[in-house]
Amino acid sequence: MAAGAVSVQGAVPMIMGANIGTTVTNTIVAMASVNRRDEFRRSFAGATMHDFFNVIAVIVILPLELTTHMLERMSGALATVLVGSGQVEFDSPVKAITKPVAKGFVHWLEGLGWGDPVVGTFVLVVAVLGIFLALSRLPSLMREMFLSRAEGAFYRLMHRGGLVGMGVGVFITVLVQSSSITTSLLVPMIGAGIIPLEAAFSITLGANIGTTVTALLASTAGTHDAVAIALVHLLFNIMGICIIFPIRAIRRIPIRLAENLAEFSLRSRLVPLLYLVFLFFLLPGLIILGQRILSGS
User: Fold this and answer.
1) CB atoms < 10 A from the CB of 263, how many?
2) Among positive and negative, which fits the CA dihedral 139, 140, 143, 149?
3) What is the pLDDT of residues 36-51, one digit of tens each?
4) Residue 273: exposure state from Cβ atoms within 10 A (0-12, 13-18, ≥19)
5) Would you list the domain boundaries of the chain?
6) Which residue of 36, 64, 104, 177 is most buried, as measured by CB atoms within 10 A?
7) pLDDT tens for each residue of 84-100
8) What's the Cα-to-Cα distance from 68 to each of 14, 58, 74, 182, 238, rounded to whole Å?
9) What φ, ψ does residue 244 adopt, rounded to 5°?
10) pTM of whole model > 0.85?
11) How many angstroms separate the CA atoms of 208 and 27, rounded?
């Protein structure tokens, strides 16, 4: 995007879609407790309320953006102010630990005489298996960690929800540079009954904002459009929160939808699988197909 391959206008729907797509990790984490009914019901509701929030935000904001280009204009105006502020770097502690290990592993494979295609394929398979192994172990690890430390000050902040909960979500996500990590940590805690859904919802919304910080900091050393695109992501998440969060009746909509879906999922294990396939694979494919048909006509 910084190279100018994507315009600000074209990046807006991509960012909205990415906001929905990034929540797939939460649902995979929730699936780890599928054999424990009560825990799975809470976990699945905690995972999918993020989906419903992002979907509702897209349903409300995308038509406004297509007709008024408000995000494009607002981000463009703010980018004009920010461009030229100099480069700001933020080194992720997670990347600082994992990157040398990953590079050393690749160099070791290359030392065995393997070609680039073989090394790339093998590393991809190991990475995918590692992700699923980590996600499958995450619920039990979180239960062990937090059930014994549930009286800590940090836990009490997480339990409060509201603006405090959002602040916690922003802080954790900026630290690890991934909203998926933050929300995936929440899912087993919700499943264990440690954190109620409404408090976790606040942290999730904070994570939505925190995940935009890295891109925004990196973009300040780039072009005007790069900064504008990063600001679109930030403004979209803030606007979604302003629309959905302040009024409790509206704030409860994504939570209630997630609870109903979780109850329905207890009837059959196929429901979560079908939900995953539909929301993250079939629906995007249908949208792309429809766009191509319309543009072709």
Assistant:
1) 12
2) negative
3) 888 999 999 999 999 9
4) middle
5) 8-296
6) 177
7) 544 444 455 556 777 78
8) 17, 15, 11, 33, 18
9) -100, -35
10) no
11) 16
